Each structure stands twice: as structure tokens, then as C-alpha cells.
Amino acid sequence: MSTQNPTNFNDEDSNTTSNTAFEQVLDSRLSRRSLFKGAGLVGVAAGATALTGCATPMSGGGATLTSLGFKPVAKSLADKVVVPEGYTAQVIYALGDPLTATTPAFKNDGTDAAFEQRAGDHHDGMEWFGLDASGQPSNAFTSRGLLAMNHEATTDEKLSSFFIHPNGGTATLPRPAAEVDKELAIHGLSFVEVQTNGKQWAYKAASPFNRRVTTMTPAAIHGPARGSEHLVTKFSADATSSRGTLNNCGTGKTPWGTFVSGEENWYGYFFRDAKDDDARKKDKQVQALKRYGRKAGEASRHGWESAGADDRFVRWNNSAVAASAKEDYRNEMNTFGYVVEVDAYDTKAPMRKRTGLGRFAHESVAFARPVAGQPIVAYMGDDARGEYIYKFVSEAKWDPKDASGANRLAAGDKYLDKGTLFAARFKGDGTGEWLELSMNNPVLAGSSYFEFKSNADMAIFTRLAADAVGATKMDRPEWNGVHPRTGEVYFTLTNNSNRTAATADAVNPRVYTDMKGSKEQKGNVNGHIVRLADASPAGASFKWDIYVFGAEAGADKSTVNLSNLTDENDMSSPDGLVFSPATGVCWIQTDDGAYTDKTNCMMLAAIPGKQGDGGPRTVKHGDKNVTTFVGKTPTPTTLARFLVGPKGSEITGWCETPDGRAVFINIQHPGESTKMADVNDPSKYESQWPANAGYGAGQRPRSATIVITKNDGGTIGS
């Protein structure tokens, strides 16, 4: 028997290249006591009580809001969901809920089984797929639809997902097979039908559309990496198929009507023997494994590889233990880290792994508005410190007929299997360029940093390709969204404890100390949101500025609260970000640990302007002046807190009915700081939500989906 310490995914920092960091390429905007000395933004955020929202009619049934019309909610430490006056939040779908008519009701005491037929854990990104009265796909029907969602991870202290096991499970190795089987099933995706009777929403447990996708579900490999030697495994000797999807975070909806999901922090689920580097000899994959966060000998998050000799456990051992890759799972980790595509309406079609969109810690996928005769364009971020922002441009040109085609996954093959991936480089003059990641780029074709033999190598070892071309290192690019009117792209950059005065510059100008009780928090504590304006979606250049800085309202406005946030809209660690197709509102969600002594995590509504609508602002660090560019100062009519979640939770996932009158949100990992030893003592739980809101059996906290409606039947946010 042995013990292991779990991997802390948020501490992943495997980019040790000498590429210039985002801030270091901006010399023309950075100076010492010179450039734009004394410049600043002028603007006072007005206070607000009840507001009247303004809207411009839209042809799609919703209305573009030009100002927010709700009273901002106060910060909260309560163990409940708080929404504005005149709104109602209802829990409709939680961890363990049955997805078939024959699956037993969830007891929530750790004895439940059959998680392949239940809602998974850690509800995350989510999309709406409408159904009409006869059960056919509909882009207009508003009272019935499918929710397609990610189940990212699970609440664990050491190895075990302790809330789903009777006494918390086993925190030593080897892990029992019965425990691991549950944990394999609670990760992945779910598709669940929901419907309203005009008064309340509910999920339909017996719907034929309901299904789960787990770590064991077959997948077809598509794109340039299909058939690559680096994807050969004991399961698929020809490298055309794999099993499962894992640690799915952000989502997207394609212009042809399918669901896409990003595999994020998958690397920590795999184990490598301490002597694996030697066993692989001069295999270039040793360099790649380290670049993707898997050093030889490091423990895996859950110890699944220890549960027995069955193939479903052995596959999590990523070591070279046999004579060839066809006899072991040395390449299994290479089958994760992609965007997966699923047809929400087709319960039989296998999911596709779209390798053309690159392999990294994917968050959401945001598509530019498709234009007939032009390529499809998708934006993505790699969520780890020092990683990159990406763009994919399809080879095929958009045909509007594909928006309503009968074979939606065939359309995905058409637009996502062939194209070009680019990584972003930010320049010091406020512009940027997209760097091609293909064998057409001589920097990669002749690279001495890593041997690229084909575009399959680019797809599998994307991070190394971006390293080699000199892409700009970023501070954890999280979700991104495309503004439906301006086409500009917004990326959340959550925070960075490594930021120092020496590295502060135009795009990361803040370095400060924030006190959380007696604990010092240093660096860029509260994060910010960067805005990119592409010259054209498929073009090679862009401009950028910073839409908003996260900060506490009372923080110094000269060094920290550069966006002049107030009590109505201050926030920390922006993470989720989605634009409403119905109203144009930008919804910002937080995953925070810095401000949680004052408030639980939250969701804000925003009506942004345009890149360049603000001006320069200078921040001093001793004798060093850093000049940045900040968007127009928000007010409570353009940025306001809409929701605060229960204790220990992250707010994530967002989708809506086509009329914008019902919004679905996920509450992830409430009570995550509960001690494993206290699993059978509800009085010691950090949270008892959603049981304390009247939903379900037991008192163990559960990730869950809520639906929010306006009591007068109006548009959300108005």
C-alpha cells in the first residue's frame, strides 16, 4: 500500500521556453517615466438601484440590450443562489439524477451505482439544442430542448471522489475497482431533455434523447492526426479510434448545429513510471510528455491505473512497458487534449475527436459569424500559465445550406478536418499577428527545437509548434466569446500569482499585494479580460486592448482597480464568458479563490463597447512606469452582478432558449473544501446545496444545473 499526493491542475506550468511573454513584446507601450506619462482614463461609475433596460428589436425573436435593467445583487457568503429582484432560479438537474426510466432515484449517500445512466459530476460548459413539439430539431422552439453539457472533474481531497463513495472512498493505492468504475463514469458529457409547462422547467428522465458520454465511450479520430504513429495504442493499432473524453471544460455550438467540447486538464489522470524516460530512449515524445505536464514518476490524480489488470484500468498507465506501442498504452495520453464533436440529436453517431483544432488544455470554442464563401473560423485558448491563444481557419468555404443539413457530423468533417491552425503573437504597438502552425511554415519544417515531420505532428504536439514559432506566452487563457455585433473576441485571463514588478508591462500592468485575512496574495491577483479585433476573421492581423480588470471596489484605483469597478460590479478571477445570441449580453462567470472571504463566486452581465473605446492609463512600480490601454469605464448599466452562488462553488456553463427568456447556468463543486474525513457528518459540510434549496435526497453537496426566468416573463437582463 502507498499514498499519493494529487496533482494540482491549476499549478500546471510546463512552458519553459524562452518565448517572450505577452507583456515583454510591448516595448512601444512601456517606458520608464516617459511614454504617456501621467495619462489616465476619465470616468466615474454611477450608482444604480432599479434600472430600466433598453433594447433594439432583433429578427430572431430576442432583442439586443443596450443597457441592463435589473438591480445588481450584492456580494454574498450565503449557502444559496442569489439572483436579482424579479427573477427566479430553479434547480433542474444534479449529479446522480437518473437518465432512464429504470435507473433508481439518487439516494446521495455514497451507495448509488450505475453512473453511466446518471448525471455526471462537476457540471461545466453547456449548450442548448431545441426540439419542437414533435421532437424534431428546432432553432426557434423555446419550451423544449436538449441541454448538452460537460462533466469536467470531481470533488477530491486525495485520490478518491469522496462524495460518491459511502465512507469517502480509498485514499491509498491500489484503488478498489468498484470505486474507480464510478469515477470513470462521472466524467465526460451528458445530453438531457428539458421542458417547461409554462410555469416550471423540469428534465425528462425517460427521454430517448438522454445519454451519457464517459471516459469509456468509443470515439473516432478525425483530422490530420488520424492514423499517426503517435496515436497507436493496444486499443487501436491503426490509430483511427480511441476511448472516452476527459476533463471537459468549455463548449461551443457549431454553425451547422453540433456540440463541441474542449478537453482541458487531462494530463494529470495519467501515470508514468519513474524510469519511463529511459525506457523510451531517444523518443522525441519524452520532450513532448514533459511539455504537456507529465514527468516520469509523477503521481496521477486518482490512481485509476492501480485498480487492476483489466484494460479499463491499465490504459491510464502511460509508460512504455511493452515491445511496441501496439502492445501498451504509452500513447494513450496523446488521444486526449482535443475538441470533441457530438451531434446532440443523434444518439447513435460516435463522437469525433477533431485533431485539426490542436491538442492542448482546451477551454471553449467560439466561432466567428459564418459568411457565405468564406472559411469557418474558430477561436480557442490553452488554460495554463504561459500558454497560448489559437485560431483555426477551415480549408472549406461556408455554404449556408450546411446550417440545416441532414448529416451534421458530415458537415463537421467538411469544415474541421482540413484547415490551418494559428497561434497569436502580440506586438508592442497594440497589434498582433497569427502565426501558421503547419509544414508550410519553414520555421517548423526546419525546427531544431522539436522534430515536426507532418501536420499530424502539429496537431498532436501543438504546444511545441507554438513554442517554435514564437507565439506569445499568456496568463491562463480561459473561455472566449465572439461579440455578435462587432465580431471582436474576448478572452478571460484568470489571474497570475507569478507576476512581478520586473515583468509588469502594458498588457499585464498590475502587480500588487491583496490581503485575504492574514494571508498575502501577490501578483495579478484578480485577473482581466483581453479583447481582440481581427482585421478579418480569417486574416493574419489583429488589434487588442483590455476590456476590464477584475478588482475589489475599494482597491487603489491607480494600481489595482483600473476599471473603476464599484460594489455593483467588482469581481475577481473571470473564467467563463459567453455572449447571448438573443440579446448580445456578455455573461462573465468567476472561478475565484482570492475574494472569497468577501463573496462567493458570481456571474455578471455586461454590455461591452468596442476595442479602443477607452484610453491609456499609467501604473507606477517604483521608478518604472507601465502604460496600458483600458476599455471604457463600465457603469452598473453596462456591467452588473447578476448572480452569486452557494459556498465553495464555481459559476460556469451558460445557455439560453432562443427568445432569451430562460437561461441555464451550472453550479459546480459546491462545498469543495469539505474534508474527506467529514463525509458522513453534514454539519461539517462547507455547503449543503442543493438539498438546502429543496432539491433531492441526502445532504451531500452536488453540482447542478439551474434555470433562471424573469417573473414577468421578460428577457433575461432587461
Treating each run of at least 4 consecutive H or I residues as one helix, how many helices? 8
Q: Strands of the largest sheet, in order across it? A: 16-17-19-20-21-28-27-24-23
C-alpha geometry: globular
End-to-end CA span: 58 Å
Number of strands: 37
> What's the rounded overall pLDDT mean?
92
Beta-strand portion reads 25-35%
Largest sheet features: 9 strands, antiparallel
Helix-strand makeup class: mainly beta
Radius of gyration: 24 Å
Helical content (DSSP H or I, runs of 4+): under 10%
List the uncertain runs.
Answer: 1-7, 22-52, 56-60
Verbal overview:
7% of the residues lie in helices and 29% in strands. The radius of gyration is 24 Å and the shape is globular. It is mainly beta and 718 residues long. The strands form 9 sheets. Strands 16-17-19-20-21-28-27-24-23 form a 9-stranded antiparallel β-sheet. It contains 8 helices and 37 strands.
